[in-house]
Design brief:
Strand order of the largest sheet: 3-2-1-4-5-6-7
Distance between the termini: 62 Å
Radius of gyration: 23 Å
Oligomer: single chain
Largest sheet: 7 strands, parallel
CATH class of the largest domain: Alpha Beta
Structural class: alpha/beta
CATH superfamily of the largest domain: Glycogen Phosphorylase B
Number of helices: 16
Strand content: 5-15%
Low-confidence stretches: 1-8, 40-52
Shape: globular
Length: 416
């Protein structure tokens, strides 16, 4: 017998098995740490307050302030309907904490294990969150919570969470039929009970589109004949980010187009790639050729640009679907072995739709970037591609916030 062949495991299966093993080991470690944390928390004043209080009706849990754009329209609608809700955040500077609500109580609950310990002992009827890996790592299902609802923070594949990311939610609010298929196939392969799935849409994109449409209606909506094309370079950070891979060569090529160039580095770049960013900003500091953008809200810079150049990033879909403009993208360096999609045979929707939205940036076409930009802006096929993408990944445009809140309140009343 050829024992080498018998013991061989292909790389994808090996990666999957490693992830499962890592998860099991992490869970064991967490159990021991959790016992200490829960004991410490149980004798604290916060737990005493919760133990004598009534069960909370609806809780929204956010693990980072960047998800406030997802939750703000939902909170506003819950406020308008007079529904008592609690918003718990792990960011001390979450914009939610500055909002003046009558029916929404916004609270910073700490970060890390402190926050997860509070959530693990929560008493509530319903929890809504964007946070994956419920009941996989630190965040455990509380025995005193009836129902957990997940809402995504992006407009693409639902299977690109780390493995088992959504398995233990009761319900998922989605925006495209292909996402439903991905969830149902994962349930079948893992022998999981069927979750409650609602096709609601994407509230934060509805808000962006409404604002954009209103401002376009108030303006002429047309560029002046002598206006230059404005190109926005919005790279991710890390080894596969455009600035890390191509750096000065990319910027020089953009300057040579003669177009208005805006560079908006990823916020993480200013800490993780500080030396590189500072060097580039110091070298390319002529505002007549380059504008560096660090606005907290990216709405205005997305609005005034004519085309976006980015890596494999969710901003591509925000930009092309809301602002109806073309994109140039880099080929994603994506190892799916640790993600849910590793279980699925179908190609990711993201990969199948990208070439309908714009052109790919490659090593051999950077120096010819002006031709690529002009082709993307002028070719009608990308307009049709954006229409197709909206049909497939953005249902109920303009109606999603109401549908989300309808679902949450109806489910809460059902649980009562």
């Amino acid at each position: 017998m050829n024992y080498a062949m018998f013991l061989y495991i292909d790389p994808a299966t090996g990666g999957m098995l490693f992830t499962i093993l890592f998860g099991m080991i992490s869970a064991v470690i967490y159990v021991f740490r959790s016992l200490i944390l829960k004991l410490k928390y149980s004798i604290g004043s916060d737990h005493k307050k919760m133990s004598v209080s009534e069960k909370l009706p609806i809780v929204i849990f956010s693990d980072h302030k960047r998800y406030w754009n997802v939750f703000e329209p939902i909170c506003d609608e819950l406020e308008n309907r007079g529904q008592k809700t609690y918003y718990y955040t792990m960011s001390e500077d979450d914009p939610a904490l500055e909002k003046k609500y009558n029916n929404i109580t916004c609270e910073y609950i700490g970060n890390g294990n402190k926050a997860f310990s509070k959530m693990n002992l929560l008493k509530a009827y319903l929890v809504l969150s964007t946070t994956p890996s419920l009941d996989v790592f630190q965040w455990k299902r509380s025995k005193d919570v009836n129902y957990y609802v997940h809402i995504p923070h992006m407009a693409n594949d639902i299977s690109v969470y780390k493995m088992f990311g959504l398995d233990y939610y009761d319900s998922i609010l989605l925006s495209g039929e292909y996402q439903v298929h991905q969830i149902r196939e994962l349930e079948r392969l893992r022998n999981l009970p069927a979750k409650d799935i609602e096709l609601v849409g994407i509230p934060y994109m509805d808000v962006m589109k409404k604002r954009f449409d209103m401002e376009n209606k108030e303006s002429t909506g047309h560029k002046k004949p002598d206006d230059k094309v404005t190109v926005l370079l919005a790279p991710s950070w890390g080894d596969n980010g455009i600035l890390k891979k191509y750096g000065e060569r990319m910027i020089d090529s953009l300057i040579n187009t003669g177009y208005n160039i805006i560079i908006r580095p990823h916020p993480q770049s200013f800490s993780s790639e500080k030396d590189m960013i500072e060097a580039l900003m110091n070298k390319y500091n002529d505002r007549r050729t380059i504008e560096w953008n660090r606005d907290n809200d990216n709405y205005e810079v997305l609005k005034k640009s004519d085309i976006l150049i980015s890596d494999f990033s969710g901003v591509i879909f925000d930009y092309t679907l809301v602002y109806d403009k073309p994109v140039i993208y880099t080929e994603p360096d994506f190892d799916k072995s640790v993600y849910d999609c590793a279980w699925l045979e179908d190609e990711l929707w993201t990969f199948s739709i990208l070439d309908k939205l714009g052109l790919e940036l490659k090593e051999d076409n950077i120096d010819n970037i002006k031709t690529i930009i002009d082709e993307c802006i002028s070719n009608d096929k990308y307009t049709e591609g954006r229409k197709q993408a909206r049909r497939e990944t953005w249902v109920n445009i303009g109606k999603s916030t109401g549908l989300v809140v309808d679902y949450i309140i109806d489910k809460y009343n059902e649980l009562l």
